[in-house]
From TrEMBL:
The keyword Repeat applies. Pfam families: EF-hand_7. Residues 104-139, 140-175, 195-230, 231-266 form the EF-hand domain. Residues 69-93 are annotated as: Disordered. This is EF-hand domain-containing protein. InterPro entries: Ca-bind (IPR051581), EF-hand-dom_pair (IPR011992), EF_Hand_1_Ca_BS (IPR018247), EF_hand_dom (IPR002048). Keywords: Calcium, Coiled coil, Metal-binding, Repeat. It comes from Haptolina brevifila. One of its GO terms (molecular function) is calcium ion binding. Residues 31-65 form a coiled coil.
Length: 296
């Protein structure tokens, strides 16, 4: 029995040693595998750093090349010591005072814009127009500058062609129209436009950039201050709606020409003759309907 027990103990110890040896070998292999993975990661990191350094160098070289290739930006001309001034007339809107000041100094204004035209496109943006006013010594509210810009930017494109600005600055504004002071503002406005039909039609034609022969509501609104009328928007809308009988939101030039012709009837109100015919037809229709109901 003692011999058998000793034999079992020896086998157990051998088994234990074998298990410990296997665990040790497995641990060594796992450790070696981890070390190899760390070494591989270190190599990948070195490669990534090298690639990043190369990209950084290429980017720096590209920036330097672009800087050398780009044309040098011209600095805006400094404001002149001889500042422009407004008339200060309380009866004249500020945008018109600014326009008059710019016209009176047309050569200076044109020289200023020419010095700012770095890309040579011959266009004056809204931003450049805003910058020019204080540069010329005028302290004017942004809303007034916008109002003048929009009046001169007839096509609404957001920029003024240099040639067109030169034409505007060298052209004296036409005499303003005035309302009669008799009747409703809408009727007065209608009569004033008819009395100056040629000017009105010429203005709309000059704004018809796409040649569609149509006057939009927005163009109709812009025309009133351009013609010298200080009229509430509601009255301008009322006249537009009166003439735009189909509610399409625009007026055809051909139709406007008829409306502005002396003696033309007011749109939106049928002539008396037509009204009488319409009333007679309605009466006949009513009588026919009554007879039909009686017969049934």
């Amino acid at each position: 029995a003692v011999s058998h027990s000793g034999k079992q103990q020896s086998e157990s110890e051998a088994l234990l040693r074998r298990l410990l040896d296997e665990q040790r070998q497995s641990s060594i292999k796992e450790q070696a595998s981890q070390q190899k993975a760390l070494a591989d990661m270190g190599e990948e990191l070195k490669k990534a750093r090298a690639e990043l350094l190369t990209l950084h160098q290429e980017l720096s070289a590209a920036k330097a090349a672009l800087k050398l290739a780009a044309p040098k930006e011209k600095k805006p001309a400094p404001p002149s010591k001889n500042k422009l001034t407004l008339s200060g007339d309380p009866n004249v809107p500020v945008p018109e005072q600014v326009a008059e000041a710019l016209r009176s100094n047309a050569s200076r204004v044109l020289d200023l814009f020419r010095s700012w035209d770095a890309n040579g496109d011959g266009e004056i943006s809204r931003k450049e127009f805003h910058k020019s006013i204080p540069a010329l010594g005028l302290d004017v509210a942004k809303s007034d500058i916008d109002a003048l810009f929009e009046q001169w930017d007839s096509d609404g494109g957001g920029s003024l062609a240099y040639k067109e600005l030169r034409k505007i600055l060298n052209t004296r504004p036409a005499k303003k129209m005035a309302l009669s002071g008799e009747g409703s503002i809408v009727d007065q406005l209608s009569d004033a436009l008819k009395s100056n039909a040629s000017r009105v039609f010429a203005l709309f034609q000059s704004w018809d950039q796409d040649g569609d022969g149509e006057i939009s509501r927005k163009e109709f609104h812009r025309a009133m201050p351009a013609l010298g009328f200080d009229v509430p928007k509601a009255d301008i809308d009322a006249l537009f709606n009166r003439w735009d009988t189909d509610g399409g939101g625009s007026l055809a030039y051909r139709e406007l020409k008829k409306l502005l012709t002396p003696g033309a009837p007011k749109r939106g109100n049928a002539p008396n003759g037509l009204k009488k015919v319409g009333n007679a037809m309605a009466a006949v229709s009513g009588m026919t309907a009554t007879d039909n109901s009686k017969s049934h």
